[in-house]
Hints:
By secondary structure, the chain is α/β, with parallel strands linked by helices. It has 2 domains: 10-19 and 263-364, Aspartate Aminotransferase, domain 1 (Alpha-Beta Complex); 23-260, Aspartate Aminotransferase, domain 2 (3-Layer(aba) Sandwich), CATH 3.40.640. It has 12 helices and 15 strands. It has helices at residues 21-26, 37-54, 67-78, 92-103, 121-130, 151-158, 210-216, 228-235, 246-262, 264-285, 311-320, 347-364, and strands at residues 10-11, 60-63, 84-89, 107-112, 135-139, 141-142, 147-148, 165-169, 188-192, 204-208, 288-289, 300-304, 323-324, 326-327, 336-340. A 7-stranded mixed beta sheet has the order 2-10-9-8-5-3-4, sandwiched between helices. The chain has a 4-stranded antiparallel beta sheet with strand order 11-12-15-14, covered by helices on one side. Strand 14 and strand 15 (336-340) form a beta hairpin. Helix 2 (37-54) crosses helix 9 (246-262) and helix 5 (121-130) runs parallel beside helix 6. The mean pLDDT is 97.
Amino acid sequence: MSPRNPQHVRLFIPGPVEVREEILDAQAGWMIGHRSSEFAALYGRMQPKLQQTFFTQHPVYLYTSSGTGVWESASRCAVRDEARVLHLVCGAFSERWAEVSQFNGKQADVIAVEWGQAVKPEQLADALRGQAYDAVACVMNETSTGVRNPIEGYAEVLRDYPDTLFLVDAVSIYAGAKVDVDNWGIDVCLTSTQKAFALPPGMAFAAVSPAVLERARQVPHRGYYFDMLEIDRHHQKNNTPATPPVSLMYAADRQLDDMLAEGLEARFARHERMATMTRTWARGAGFAPFSEEGYHSPTVSTLTNTRGIDIAALNAFLRGRGMAISNGYGKLKGKTMRIAHMGDTQPEHLEVLFAAMDEFLAKEG
Ligand SMILES: *Cc1c(COP(=O)(O)O)cnc(C)c1O
């Protein structure tokens, strides 16, 4: 019945990640109109589960876009044209969000550290002493470098700046580690479906505080598709301004149930265990974590190619075994490799991967 290709390649790449068959199947429900009561019921029953997984009482909006759309939405709505936004940059994704702010005409300042390093709370504190900002934007888990930034430290610093909104990209860590949105005073926290959520690509979510909507009212040109005030107006009615990806919502609804059934704490612990396993394997095989000590990501490991192996050849070998990892991102290509251990990946899957990688390395000499 299913046209699914039997040549399954299990993805250990950091997006899109491996999606379970149950989730693929959940998408196959009959279509419903998005102005129907069935749709409002679907939207409405996802809300408390989204709030629980985001650790927030704020509404969680649904975006028919990948994560980049929420960057654009947050940059446009949370920053007034005459004000400034501060971006904390430590890799490819945090760098790109700063560009999104600039492309939308916002005045963006940047604190940039070398790739592989985390941005420290003291650096943020220093910058805020010299300049007022409408918002600080950061990436909690920098997927290019495998760095988990100390955002609870940023939260501490930002307590002294109530007019500065705190925008956090949690795309590759949501539901893989605790992102304590309300306790950390996060005003926008976003994720998209194809990373730690372990769904097919095409949809994103953002927990948004009332302070952001207040700010948005002071921004005359917020665009159309990603205007948070318009999204909120429809959210009140368990609806979206334009046509949402209903099939993906079926999958998300199912995945939220499964995540809560596993238990969030158990899920976080599983991710920590897989990250430790990966670093232990790497050190044993003669590789080193690229990320700064003390700031290793629980969901993706970027490993320095200390042995100078041919990563493309490794991946070709793995593909023959039905698996794929990722080469380094952008300027790190060839210099690092990335192994994602997020979503529904289990320790046993990693054991199979590491056995195959050991086999390749033994053959290489
Ligand atoms: C993948 C990713 C994004 C968004 O990319 P999309 O392709 O737009 O979903 C944003 N931030 C991080 C940290 C990511 O890993």
